[in-house]
Amino acid sequence: MTQPLRRYAGSTILVVDDDRSNLDLLLAILTRAGIVNVHTESDSRLVAARLVELDPDLLLLDLNMPHLDGRQVLGQVAEFAAGQALPVLLITGDTGIGEVAGAAAVLTKPYDLDELLDQVAALLAGSASS
């Protein structure tokens, strides 16, 4: 596999999902694609602290999680970003979810690898130009 995201190698991505296998898969995909700083979190209650700790360039976020769901986490992202752009790619198993306030894009599981990488590249490109 080539590294289609290598130009964004210095970007920091936080992946939040309560399913460890989803986190491991996304970590492997993003790392192989060229991103060096990929961090994962399985407990949505810890996302606010992780945002402060990591100051990510992109957040990949599951919608349906225990404790705080993706919509509640999006509220924390809005507080953290305080008017600055922090793109969020919402990844969900809910088909037909449509747009979700606070998410820059929505990807439905199971997702196509090329579509995932294209979305990540587009969001990181937009984040770099803001």
Please outline the helices and strands.
Elements: E1 12-16, H1 20-32, E2 37-41, H2 47-54, E3 58-62, H3 70-81, E4 88-92, E5 105-108, H4 113-129
Parallel strand pairs: 1-2, 1-3, 3-4, 4-5
Written overview of the protein:
- This protein is of the alpha/beta class and about 130 residues long.
- It is built from 4 helices and 5 strands; from the N terminus they run E-H-E-H-E-H-E-E-H.
- A 5-stranded parallel sheet has the order 2-1-3-4-5, sandwiched between helices.
- The longest helix is centred in the last third of the chain and has 17 residues.
- It is globular and about 35 Å long.
- It starts with 11 loop residues before the first strand and ends with a helix.
- The model has no long low-confidence stretch (mean pLDDT about 90).
Low-confidence runs of at least 5 consecutive residues: none
How would you name the oligomeric state of the polypeptide chains in this document? single chain
How much is the average pLDDT? 88
| Shape field | globular
* SSE string: EHEHEHEEH
The portion of residues assigned to helices is: 25-40%
Report the major sheet. 5 strands, parallel
- Counting DSSP H or I runs of 4 or more residues, the number of helices is 4
Ends distance = 30 Å
Structure classification: alpha/beta
With strands numbered from the N-terminus, the spatial order across the biggest sheet is 2-1-3-4-5
Strand content of the residues, in percent?
15-25%
Q: What structural keywords apply?
A:
130 residues, alpha/beta, five-stranded parallel beta sheet, globular
Briefly say what this structure is.
With 130 residues, the chain is α/β, with parallel strands linked by helices.
